[in-house]
Design brief:
alpha/beta, five-stranded mixed sheet, D-Maltodextrin-Binding Protein, domain 2, 15 helices
Amino acid sequence: MKKSLWSALALMLVLTMALLGVVGCSGGQSGDADKPTIIVGSKTFTEALLLGSMTYQYLDYLGYPVENKTGLGELAVIRPALESGEISCYWEYTGTVLINIMGEEPSYDEEQCYNDVKEWDEKNGIIWLDYAPLNNTYSIMTTKQIADQYNLKTTSDAVEAIKNGAKLRFVTAQEWVERPDGLQHFESIYGFTYPKELHSQAALNMGYEILKNGQADLGLAFTTDARVKAYGLVLLEDDKSAFPVYNPAPLFREEIIKAYPELSEQMKKLSSLLDNETIMGLNEEVDIGKKSVDEVAENFLKENGLIE
């Protein structure tokens, strides 16, 4: 009887240790059940959804405990969510925080803008990891035909062509014309005033179609918009830095980085891959090719060896 009792106790001890071992292995890469779950958020437009999906899939593959809250909302929703701890991280643009959160004037220097927002947010318990090379800002676009005809590669080339008599019709948006960092700033940096008879306005996102249909020669574009590539348009280099900088970077709550300090270098492997041409192609796959955000994000991660 005693032997049977000791055998039963021994079996219970073995089972208990095994159960503790299973529990101890949960909690992702850390092997510690007390480590926090990383709740990944994002804004709702295509580029932000792609960045959010890449982050979620990548961290999940690395073994972190993660939760998906991508597509949560725009700045007025997602920033408070990060500050309150509803989410742990999301990708934000340097210029957005500088202008819309800090209330500062636009910046035209990538490093300075990043350092300013990073230093400011450290006081808020928010850590900016390394920003991506891509800059989702404004640019002057044209058609390939016009670029070839006038040998346009930079914005200065277009300005010189206009000064020399080229009748290049320019379509912009009222919002940009009225902004202090818009047309007035652009003209002051490039040292000319666009002829009024060649200047028209349309809805902010209609310029691509207008150029595609030959109704204008130059237009205001976003540098990562899928339609630039899809319509065969050409972005002119902003050689005098007239447009504000908007580099995206992953923002994490401070306690997440303290719990997982290796995240900084791991996320850098992702952010360093994202330049304008790359993100424009990914946006095109979703917006023009009608592929799902998650599929495009997964393929990109696999192609670059970040997940298998």
